[in-house]
Amino acid sequence: MTTPALLPLSGRRIPPLNLGPPSFPHHRATLRLSEKFILLLILSAFITLCFGAFFFLPDSSKHKRFDLGLEDVLIPHVDASKGAKNPGVFLIHGPDEHRHREEEERLRNKIRADHEKALEEAKEKLKKSREEIRAEIQTEKNKVVQEMKAKEKKPLPPVPIPNLIGINGGDPEDNDIRKKREKIKEMMKHAWDNYRIYGWGHNELRPIARKGHSTNIFGSSQMGATIVDALDTLYIMGLHDEFRDGQKWIEDNLDFSVNSEVSVFEVNIRFIGGLLAAYYLSGEEIFKIKAVQLAEKLLPAFNTPTGIPWAMVNLKSGVGRNWGWASAGSSILAEFGTLHMEFVHLSYLTGDPVYYKKVMHIRKLLQKMDRPNGLYPNYLNPRTGRWGQYHTSVGGLGDSFYEYLLKAWLMSDKTDHEARKMYDDAIEAIEKHLIKKSRGGLTFIGEWKNGHLEKKMGHLACFAGGMFALGADGSRMDKAGHYLELGAEIARTCHESYDRTALKLGPESFKFDGAVEAVAVRQAEKYYILRPEVIETYWYLWRFTHDPRYRQWGWEAALAIEKYCRVSGGFSGVKDVYSSTPTHDDVQQSFFLAETLKYLYLLFSSDDLLPLDHWVFNTEAHPLPVLHLANTTLSGNPAVR
Ligand code: DMJ
Question: Which of 279, 312, 339, 518 is most buried, by CB atoms within 10 Å?
Answer without folding.
Answer: 339
